[in-house]
Amino acid sequence: MNQEIKICQNCKKDFIIDPDDFAFYEKIKVPPPTWCPECRLKRILVWRNERILYKRKCNLCGKSIITIYHPDSPYAVYCLDCYWSDKWDPYSYARTYNFKKPFFEQLGELFFRTPKRAMGNTGANNCEYVNNAIDNSNCYLIFNSGNNEDSSYSSGIRKCRDVMDVHYGENLEQCYGVVNAQNCSRCTNSENISDCVDVHLSMDLRGCQNCFGCVDLTRKNYHFFNVPLSKEQWEEKIKDFFGSLNSLSLIIKKFKEFSLKFPKRYSNIYKSSNCIGDYIFESKNAKNCLEAMRCEDCKNGLFVRLLKDSIDVAGFGYNSELLLSCMAVGYSSRVIGCSNMKDGQDVYYSLLTNASQECIGCDGLKNAKNCVLNKQYTQEEYEKIKNHIIEELKQKGVYGLGLPSSLSPWAYNETMAQEIFPLTKEQALEQGYSWKDPEPRDYQITIKPQDLPDHIKDVPETITKEVIGCSHEGKCNEQCTEAFRIIPQELQFYRKMNLPLPRLCPNCRHYGRLKQRNPLKLWKRQCQCTGEKSENGVYQNTTSHNHGNSPCPHEFETPYSPDRPEIVYCEECYLKEVV
Question: Which of 256, 327, 526, 557 has its CA 20 to 30 A from that of 232?
Fold first, then answer.
């Protein structure tokens, strides 16, 4: 089948369906989508509140818990011990399917009545304020992470120890403020680094040690703004840029200007073939994906690993295939429109339905089969109801889309949708999403951010008793908490790493790291290498390229929009210069 251009029935913009997409939809017996990829992903992402936490009581045992559900939300919320226990029966909330009522209306009634899990946090040791995580120890405010120790204020980290303010890292130790880092130790305020030790305020480094303010280096040691120095010279150069916020802020400004003098790889795609997107690792045929690792034949995947032959999937994905419009589904196959599920086969439009098969419209079931709205049916009865539901959804043009955003327990700005596709309140309401206004906070701020000591050496132990005002003062669109505290282990970390105290709350710092990452959007561009130098004349090539002194003819899809100041090179030209 040929490529087709469609008009999104939600936002009315044009979008393209490729021949491979048609083949996938035919394989899982779903009609081609009527919504564009961005609208489809928003519909999925509103089903994941990752980092907005609340305090309330477990509706079963009564103990105080940390949860992703607001205390005023209408759902019964159970602590993890109660939720996974035999103290309640999800089948007791079953509803008999009514052939005369819309399916999603009946599904909403089931969702409303069935108790919800407080948060996703398994195998935890001293990790009360952690969500969508597994097997962590002594961690605080980390999200979408696993197998970490003594780490805080981070997201998307794996196998890390003693790190803070990290986004998307693996095998890190004593790192701070890094984005997209692997196998690094004692690194700070850097982006796109791997196999590095003692690297600071740097970008796109591989196998480097003792580098400060460097860009596009491989296997270098003792470099300052890309200039080689002796050990003694390097240590003398950098000594004034640690501990002091004023000194660090000045050098960060200088580094941002310096980094624009070097070419950027058109996309952060490594050890992969035929892939389009950003931060894609060891994958094959992954298109329009972000933060995808070891995936194959996937499209529109966000934060997924070990996923095969799937479209429109966010979170998890481990050892799964044939998923469509799913959020946080793993170890599963042939699953459509589900959220937070593991070990499922042939499951449709369900929530937290684990180790189950042949189910549609269920919530909280385990080891279930042939269930609709949590009620058990014979195989024949199940097939009849399932086919009726599918036909209804097909006629409405929504079969294959994710769960309706109107059924989500969270407002748009409580979810990951706001992180990937940020909207103002007015935009969200106009697009049909709900919005949660900040609640009045009665914080008694005891110290303003501008009154904090500039240097970490001047910070007293009593800082842990202060309530610090966030510099954004709640005026941003980043879930600002307006105030925050420095916890004792955090102060110890700053002193050990010789880092100044932050002036922003954890949420605002998180959104700041997200802004360092490229957007989930692609532009068609041509390589900006013109042979001897870059198109804008800023960068002088260091070696001859295969296209000689003529402009490089390579075109590509890149997350760098044409109006951005970075110099963007194709893979071949980039590797000629920096590897």
Answer: 256
d(CA 441, CA 481): 9
pLDDT at 2: 82
Q: Determine phi and psi for 119, rounding to 5 degrees.
A: -170, 175
Identity of the amino acid at 200: H
pLDDT tens string 405-452? 999 999 999 999 999 999 999 999 999 999 999 888 788 999 999 999
Side-chain half-sphere exposure of 469, counting CA atoms within 13 A: 15
Task: Find where tokens 């951005």 sit.
Answer: 564
Q: What percent of the chain has pLDDT over 70?
A: 100
For residues 539 and 26, what is the distance between their CA atoms, to the nearest angstrom? 48
Cα 455 from chain centroid? 32
DSSP 413: G
Report the pLDDT value the prediction gives residue 398, as an integer from 0 to 100.
97
Q: What is the CA radius of gyration of the chain?
A: 25
At residue 251, the pLDDT reads 97
Produce one character per residue of 34-66: b if its CB has 16 or more CB atoms within 10 Å, e if not: bbbbbbbbbbbbbbbbbbbbbebebbbeeeebb
Which portions of the chain are predicted below pLDDT 50?
Answer: none
463: three-class secondary structure by DSSP: helix
Structure tokens at 483: 């105030």
Q: Is 25 helix (H, G, I), strand (E, B) or coil?
A: helix
Distance, CA of 119 to CA of 75 (rounded, Å): 13
Pairing assessment for the beta strands 54-57 and 64-67 based on DSSP bridges: antiparallel
Is the distance from CB of 403 to CB of 337 less than 8 angstroms? yes
292, 298 Cβ separation under 8 angstroms:
yes
Cβ burial 555-566 (10 Å sphere, 16+ → b, else e): ebebbbeeeeee
What is residue 441's predicted lDDT score, i.e. its pLDDT?
Answer: 79
Helix, strand, coil abundance in the chain, percent, nearest 5: 25, 35, 45
Please name the helix (run of DSSP H) or strand (run of DSSP E) that holds residue 173, with its range, or none.
strand 167-173
- In whole angstroms, what is the distance from residue 41 CA to residue 519 CA? 14
What ranges in 449-517 are assigned the alpha helix state H?
A: 488-497, 506-516
Whether residue 76 contacts residue 90, with contact meaning beta carbons closer than 8 Å, is answered with no
Instruction: Fill in the amino acid letter for 317.
Output: G
